[in-house]
Specification:
Helices cover 46% and strands 13% of the residues. It is built from 12 helices and 10 strands. The model is unreliable at 200-214, 216-223 and 234-241 (pLDDT under 50).
Length: 320
């Protein structure tokens, strides 16, 4: 999937790779992490993102990170649902509105127009293979990378139906290595195990936002059958809805197990782990807090990252 020719044949310093992991709402932490890394003078040469990591990574390389931060911090539990176009076909959400927003957000930029290598990780729905997207429109690749099965409709690219890359590579360190990175920084927004133990799953959903979703479906003339399906999915009462909680808890388990397995076989040089275990995957309205946790985590890791870079630099100079 990577060309035989090395991407950095004449390098005089270590190539820094940044792997931005999946994590739904927790993925907003990547915004804070990137800001802290830049302040510390740590600039990646290669960026790879999975799911929300692809969203933030693409915006960063397109020079639109500030716009994404403004959008994220403006979200409320009610406004988020207004941006979702429910379909209840191959996914709860069609995703056309989000696709338009992504296209507008990154300016319709193509991979060939970026000044650094960037890859979005997705999964082939038919054969389960990992797919590395690095051609065409960045917005379309991002849309495929975050197409969580059951939540969003899959995206067809190159004759393949693609879904969320978190299913195969939640924290894509291996892709950074394949692109020639010497020092890889991994931002794992699902790695806070202590926080998960403190997490109260009752906070995973906001009854106000869910009831608003039903109001939207009703106002849109969804019809009795479609509205009935919506009520069974998100719950018609103020009690915590069963399906959303089960999906979120199951996704937590899945991401944790896959990430541990992949990172054990292909570890990063430095892992940046924001303290986000107490925040639910669906709590997008807490973006400001999430971004701040990402910033703090990268700040804590900055010296270790610099040490890794300097250590490789010394070894590289001695070798050459």
């Amino acid at each position: 999937m990577i060309d035989d020719d090395p991407p950095f044949p004449h390098r005089s310093r270590p190539v820094i790779g940044l792997a931005l992991g999946s994590g739904m709402a927790r993925g907003f932490a990547h915004i804070g992490a990137l800001k802290a890394l830049e302040e510390a003078g740590i600039i990646p040469d290669v960026v790879v993102g999975t799911s929300m990591g692809a969203v933030v990574g693409g915006a960063y390389l397109a020079g639109k990170l500030h716009a994404v931060e403004e959008w994220a911090t403006s979200l409320t539990s009610r406004s988020l649902w207004r941006q979702l176009d429910f379909s209840f076909t191959s996914g709860l959400v069609d995703g056309a509105r989000l696709t338009r927003m992504l296209h507008e957000g990154v300016g319709g930029i193509r991979f060939s127009e970026l000044d650094k290598p960037f890859i979005c990780v997705a999964a082939d729905l038919i054969n389960g293979r990992e797919v590395w997207l690095r051609e065409g429109r960045v917005s379309r690749a991002i849309r495929a990378s975050f197409s969580l099965p059951g939540a969003f409709k899959p995206v067809k690219i190159g004759g393949r139906w693609l879904v969320d890359g978190a299913m195969v590579n939640p924290v894509p360190v291996s892709v950074c290595h394949a692109l020639g990175a010497d020092v890889v920084i991994a931002v794992n927004v699902n790695g806070d195990l202590l926080g998960k133990k403190r997490y109260n799953h009752e906070s995973e959903t906001d009854p106000g936002s869910l009831s608003f979703a039903l109001e939207q479906a009703d106002d849109a003339g969804a019809g009795e059958r479609l509205l009935g399906m919506a009520k069974r999915v998100v719950g018609a009462s103020t009690e915590a809805p069963v399906m959303f909680r089960v999906m979120a808890a199951s996704l937590n388990i899945l991401l944790d197990r896959i990430a541990r397995s992949r990172l054990a076989g292909d570890p990063a040089d430095v892992n940046v782990i924001p303290r986000l275990g107490h925040i639910g995957l669906m709590e997008f309205h807490r973006a400001k807090e999430i971004i701040e946790e990402g910033y703090k985590a990268a700040q804590r890791s900055a010296e270790r990252i610099k040490d890794s870079i300097e250590g490789f630099q010394t070894a590289f100079q001695e070798e050459h």
